[in-house]
Design goal:
The chain is mainly α. It is built from 18 helices and four strands. Helix content is 55%, strand content 5%.
């Protein structure tokens, strides 16, 4: 028996079972989430410092014991995997998505590194899947996905992107065309900025009914191009990045390109229901909060600052006197040897976790503090905390700290520090900025 007629009657109770049209997308996202976790397995299966042989520190948002952090991490992982399997087998039981979203948010709290953009998007989609019939869910997801492209494009209109990552993207294309040497630096910068321009136009275009399908096709072509550019035959980015681009391409086809029947597109009347308002509030928050990214009130990745190198960051250096004393199992890559050796956090993250480093100064400072604390490095580790770069000049403000004590003090200025197990927990609310 179908629940659809009852769901369309005024005042009818909200149907938690999605109509057949929405089944396949819910299944697709559940299967995709399983695949994304599989290709980034070290990120999700890791314990905490010194436990289960894992040497890469886990940085939680709240201070807790290592044992609690490890146990809850595995509980969350089991909940995600089993619930995703449940959605694939029986998509009508959409309340299973509540478990997926709750376990994802718990995973973010237990380790900030797990706050990958695709995991964050899946957590929000999960709450929408769990509480709305397909006609309504599609509209709210369309708004969220459109905002991803718009914010991502705006973040790339930036000095740093135009002169660094954007140039890396452009170089293979120019080499293939054989015109790299013929272009001036100014011309290359303008061509680089053409990429976010197309992304912005497509992101805005999917918001309008008469340009939605064309813009959706542009987005699918963009993701296909990124897979070719970032794949093993190109810039060789991580498998998680490649797979998420494929998932976004399929999602763009479903939301913006595929022709939906009147039955599929028709919104259903929502009775006042707590879950519905939670879903709507979460989507609205995800759309509006990125406005505070450059000011430090929202994280870069949760603001969809993708491939945007303007993010805040930390440079970590280890003195040569203690470098040899660090355990080889850490797998920390160093640059050339001198009095102070640069630690390549990006490479360390890719080797140990299989994903890029979380692009936030708060997280990277907490990671460096844990490194210094647990290895008893004393004053043998120093950091340079760099602010978000200026959009027009690329310049950054810098703060320096040497040794564990100074690093703890600097870490306590962040509201979601939780990186130092010994610092005063009462200082967590000293600053309201997430940074």
């Amino acid at each position: 028996m179908s629940d659809e007629p009852a769901a369309r009657e005024p005042g009818a109770q909200l149907a938690l079972k999605m109509p057949p049209a929405g089944w396949w997308l819910a299944r697709f996202w559940a299967a995709s989430l399983l695949c994304l976790i599989a290709v980034t397995w070290p990120l999700w299966s890791c314990g905490v410092w010194g436990l289960r042989g894992n040497e890469y520190p886990s940085v939680a948002m709240l201070r807790m014991s290592d044992e609690a952090q490890f146990g809850l991490s595995w509980l969350a992982l089991v909940g995600i995997v089993t619930s995703c399997c449940g959605v694939i087998v029986c998509p009508r039981i959409t309340a299973t998505w509540w478990v997926i979203s709750a376990c994802l948010f718990l995973s973010f709290v237990l380790d900030q590194h797990r706050l990958q953009p695709w995991a964050y998007q899946a957590a929000i989609f999960g709450v929408v899947f769990a509480n709305m019939p397909w006609g309504n869910a599609r509209r709210w997801m369309m708004g969220l996905v459109a905002s991803i492209y718009i914010y991502s494009a705006i973040g790339k209109f930036d000095f740093q992107f135009a002169h660094t990552v954007g140039q890396d993207f452009l170089a293979p294309v120019l080499d293939l065309a054989g015109i790299d040497a013929k272009l001036s630096e100014r011309a290359k910068v303008l061509l680089t900025l053409l990429m976010p321009t197309i992304e912005l136009l497509a992101g805005c275009g999917v918001c309008l009914p008469w340009t939605r399908r064309l813009s959706g096709c542009m987005l699918m072509l963009m993701h296909g191009g990124l897979v070719l550019l970032l794949g093993p035959w190109g810039l060789n980015h991580s498998f998680g990045v490649l797979l998420w681009n494929l998932v976004l391409g399929v999602t763009a086809w479903e939301l913006f390109v595929r022709r939906h029947t009147t039955h599929e597109s028709e919104p259903m009347i929502d009775r006042i229901h707590v879950g519905v308002w939670v879903a709507k509030g979460l989507v609205i928050m995800a759309i509006l909060m990125p406005l505070g990214e450059r000011s430090g009130y929202w994280d870069h990745w949760t603001s969809w600052a993708l491939y945007s190198p303007h993010n805040s960051r930390v440079k970590v250096q280890v003195h040569t006197s203690i470098a040899d004393a660090l355990p080889p199992s850490l797998g920390i890559p160093f640059s050339e040897v001198r009095d102070w050796i640069d630690v390549d956090l990006d490479e360390w993250s890719l080797r140990s976790r299989g994903v890029p480093i979380y692009p936030q100064a708060r997280y990277q400072l907490a990671l460096a503090t844990k490194l210094a604390e647990n290895e008893g490095a004393g004053n043998g580790v120093r950091v340079i905390v760099q602010s978000v770069s200026d959009r027009w000049s690329g310049t950054r403000r810098e703060q320096y700290a040497m040794g564990v004590q100074e690093m703890r003090k600097l870490l306590d200025s962040y509201s979601l520090a939780a990186g130092s197990r010994y610092s005063n927990a009462g200082s967590l609310n000293k600053s309201w900025k997430i940074r």
